[in-house]
Amino acid sequence: MTEQKITFADQKRKTVEIAEFTEDGRYKRKVRSFVLRTGRLSEFQRNMMNDNWAELGLEHQTTAFDFTQIYGNTNPVILEIGFGMGKSLVEMAMQNPDKNYLGIEVHTPGVGACIAYAVEKQVKNLRVICHDATEILRDCIADGSLGGLQLFFPDPWHKAKHHKRRIVQPHFVAQVQLKLMPNGFIHMATDWENYAEHMLEVLTSAVGLCNTSATNNYIPRPDFRPLTKFEQRGHKLGHGVWDLYFVNSL
Question: Which residues of this UniProt protein bind S-adenosyl-L-methionine (predicted)?
Answer without folding.
Answer: 80, 105, 132, 155
